[in-house]
Write a structure and sequence with these properties.
There is one protein chain. With about 70 residues, the chain is mainly alpha-helical. It has one domain. It contains four helices and no strands. It starts with a helix and ends with a helix.
C-alpha cells in the first residue's frame, strides 16, 4: 500500500469533529511547497547578509507605532 493510499484510509477513520484540523494541516503541507521568495525578498536577504539593512527587535506593536510615526 502506498503512503497516499494509507493516508486516504486513515482519513476515512477521522471523526467529523476533527476533520477541520486535518484539513488545516494538509493545506499547510501543500502551501509550504510553493513558498519561493520573490526578487525583492531575495535582495533584502542578501543586503542583510552583507551587513546592510535594518533589523527591528521590538514587539509587533512597537513596530507598527514606528511605522505610523514615519508618516
Amino acid at each position: 500500500m502506498s503512503e497516499r493510499e494509507r493516508a486516504i484510509q486513515l482519513l476515512n477513520d477521522v471523526p467529523d469533529y476533527k476533520m477541520g484540523y486535518v484539513i488545516a494541516y494538509l493545506q499547510g503541507a501543500v502551501i509550504g511547497e510553493d513558498e519561493t521568495p520573490n526578487a525583492e525578498t531575495l535582495a533584502a536577504m542578501q543586503e542583510l547578509e552583507n551587513g546592510g539593512g535594518e533589523v527591528f527587535s521590538g514587539s509587533t506593536e512597537d513596530f507598527f507605532n514606528m511605522l505610523l510615526e514615519e508618516d
